[in-house]
Design a protein that fits this description.
The chain has 325 residues and is of the alpha/beta class. It contains 15 helices and twelve strands.
Length: 325
């Protein structure tokens, strides 16, 4: 590499080291004085009748927008109000049932003054995320999340870098603590994330599976020649084998054909060729979990069963078309 490239990498490593140090200091603080305040903030947000209002400006504002989005997507109703815009009508977005999370590293932005006054006037719970407990914001808050002082990654110790990452980490920690505390599940998550790759992963097997006559099935005792016609016509590269009660007892795949290739294969019975007790999935399994099973098992299709009876089939191509894989 050139000297310029080497210098850029060394700079990046120094940035990582500085920012990692900030998160490490934050973790240490959480095990000390910050811990009780963190628990109190989580309880205050959890108990609120209204929503969480995240506010800030500058870099804290940018981080605040992301934190508000994280809270909202993990089951805590939240939105962002810019601290400067609050004084020009946006205070009307905040109700007495809400909780305000005000973010300011110094705690002394003049734009916060009207918001603090409003919170006190209407007795709105106020949580401060700041590095200075004795700042104007810190003194006004009901709960103060004091972040430890840490050097910025900027060589001049000016550009918010380490401090921004620490705000983000603490906000994420609050959101996840609330998520876990209320037992927010992947099913709940899917309701709030219907779009994009994440939405596809959170679809259910029942949304993607083929059912009815599309499912390749043959009973025990079937000749392999008939099973092969079923396998070929349905196009999934396999055929499920059922017993007299309609329970799935085996599967014949392309791999089984190769392993049992012999002159009399077409006259043999499926009983002698099938793989018994094949992997199956339920119709309420998430698509992301279905993909994991396919990948880990190195197979391309799974039969969907309900009380051991086949009700559908899902192929890897179905996941690809849905945007899961």
């Amino acid at each position: 590499m050139t000297d310029q490239a080497t210098a850029a990498i060394e700079s990046a490593l120094r940035t990582f080291e500085a920012e990692a140090g900030g998160v490490t200091a934050l973790a240490a603080a959480l095990n000390s004085d910050l811990g009780p305040a963190f628990a109190a903030a989580a309880d205050m947000i959890r108990s609120a009748k209204g929503r969480l209002i995240v506010t800030g400006l500058g870099k804290s504002g940018h981080i605040g927008r992301k934190i508000a989005a994280t809270f909202a997507s993990t089951g805590t109703p939240a939105f962002f109000v810019h601290a400067a815009e609050a004084s020009h009508g946006d205070l009307g977005m905040i109700t007495a049932d809400d909780v305000i999370l005000a973010m300011s590293w110094s705690g002394e932005q003049p734009e916060m003054k009207n918001l603090i006054t409003y919170a006190k006037r209407f007795r709105i719970a106020l949580i401060a995320m700041t590095a200075d407990r004795e700042s104007t914001l810190g003194k006004a808050a009901d709960v103060v999340l004091v972040q430890p002082k840490a050097r910025e990654a900027c060589p001049h110790n000016l550009a918010p870098t380490t401090s921004s990452l620490m705000q983000l980490a603490l906000g994420d920690a609050l959101a996840i603590a609330l998520l876990e505390g209320r037992g927010f599940t992947s099913v709940d998550f899917s309701v709030l994330h219907p779009g994009g790759k994440l939405g596809a992963l959170l679809k259910y097997t029942r949304d993607l599976m083929h059912s009815g006559d599309s499912v390749p099935l043959k009973p025990l005792g079937t000749k392999m020649s008939e099973a092969l016609v079923e396998m070929t016509s349905k196009g999934f590269g396999c055929v499920g084998i059922v017993d007299g009660q309609g329970h799935l007892v085996g599967i014949v795949t392309d791999g089984d054909l190769r392993r049992h290739m012999r002159p009399d294969l077409m006259t043999a019975r499926v009983d002698d060729v099938m793989t018994p007790n094949p992997k199956t999935i339920g119709r309420d399994l998430l698509a992301g979990e279905t993909l994991e099973i396919l990948n880990s098992s190195k197979i391309t299709a799974l039969i969907v069963t309900d009380e051991k009876k086949p009700v559908g089939i899902v192929h890897l191509h179905d996941l690809l078309r849905a945007g899961v894989a």
